[in-house]
Amino acid sequence: MSRLANYASGITSHLSRFTGDLSPRLLPTFFALCAAFLLGGILILFFGENPFEVYGLLWQSVFGSLDDFGYVLFNATPLIFTGLAVMLGFKGGLFNIGCEGQLYLAGFAAAWVGFHLNWGGGWIIIPACLIAAALAGGLWGAIPGILKARYGVHEVINTIMLNFIAIALTNYLVIEVYKAPGQMSPHTPLIHEAARLPRLAAFTSMLPPSNPLNITLFIALGLIVLTQFLLTRTVWGYEIRFVGNAPEVATYGGIDVPRVTVWTMALSGIVAGFAGVWEVMGYRYRFLDNFSPGFGFTGIAVALLGRNHPYGVLFGALLFGALSKGALDIEILTNVPRELFLIIQGVLILLLVCAEGFSRHRTSE
């Protein structure tokens, strides 16, 4: 094992001559990707298919046309939001598992404003919906931050419990209070037309009208740049990273650690809430009960794959979006079930966690 570790360290040192300190951060991700897809290829053989042909179909499904890649970007958009939210928590030394509940409440808040507010046009209604979503997500993120800062209650327990509360609360509101009449699937009424964020197909003929990619993609990309600027160019970002790395030292340095903890969790909740905005204002134009397939939890995997870096989150979200798009097509065209790609994702995350632990162990030695 030590010989293998020394060999890997030698490769890293040679690559560092050309890429600086980037290769040591990306090398574990590269090896984890190779190992995960290698295991996926072995499993594909058990289904009687050729791994090269299946992965070729995956490539074609993702990059076959601009319409195909538009669906990849569409699938990746909510994962960018939740990945950034989890990453912000990690930077502050916090583990936000509550993105699922935060995006549910934010989405419902946006829908509630969207179907109640019907005056002022898009210049009024859209900002009002976005502010409502940000307040709801931020509040639901701040609650575990306050409990952590004031009473020392671990944020993992708080956020898990708050997920159940948020999902149950929105379920009750949709079914018992705001359910649109005559519908089998519980959902709210449609939001006002002025509250709907347009699809990109409305601005270009390169995408067909059926493609659901919408301008929340640009909100996500803007948040990536804004998050990078916040963490590296502002006093707030410095305090978040300082508290995340050494909270005791930060206290001695005069930083109000409880305040930073609360604001970090609130900011994480705000960013996660935009995944609800993607659903309500950019996709279905209503709040659908239990709409999320686990965006909040997948965001944890995206943040890990992205090595807790904003631009890495973009890469992780695109990869997961591509796997989600390709899995459905491959299941239709071959004998390989879509669950295989869930296995690949799980193995990938497991390998990344192991690589992180291994690198920390070597650093401590």
Describe the structure.
It is a single chain. The chain is 76% helix and 0% strand. The chain is mainly α and 365 residues long. The protein has 2 domains: 34-54 and 344-365; 66-333, Orthogonal Bundle (ABC transporter involved in vitamin B12 uptake, BtuC).
The CATH architecture of the largest domain can be given as Orthogonal Bundle
- What is the distance, rounded to the nearest whole angstrom, between the alpha carbons of the first and last residues? 15 Å
- One letter per element, helices H and strands E, the order comes to HHHHHHHHHHHHHH
Q: Outline, from the CA principal axes?
A: globular
Oligomer: single chain
Supply the CATH class of the largest domain: Mainly Alpha
**Strand content bin:** under 5%
Q: Regions with pLDDT < 50 over 5+ consecutive residues?
A: 15-23
CATH topology (level 3) name of the largest domain: ABC transporter involved in vitamin B12 uptake, BtuC
Q: Would you count the extended β strands for me?
A: 0
Helix count equals 14
**What's the main sheet like?**
none
**Helix proportion range:** over 70%
**Domain module count:** 2
Mean pLDDT across every amino acid position: 89
Using only C-alpha atoms, the radius of gyration works out to 22 Å
The secondary-structure class comes to mainly alpha
List keywords for this structure.
ABC transporter involved in vitamin B12 uptake, BtuC, single chain, 14 helices, mainly alpha
Secondary-structure map:
Layout: H1 2-19, H2 22-46, H3 51-63, H4 66-91, H5 99-116, H6 122-151, H7 155-177, H8 216-233, H9 235-245, H10 247-252, H11 257-284, H12 295-305, H13 310-333, H14 339-364
Helix pairs in contact: 1-2, 2-3, 2-14, 3-13, 4-8, 4-11, 4-12, 4-13, 5-6, 5-7, 5-11, 5-12, 6-7, 6-11, 8-9, 8-13, 9-11, 12-13, 13-14
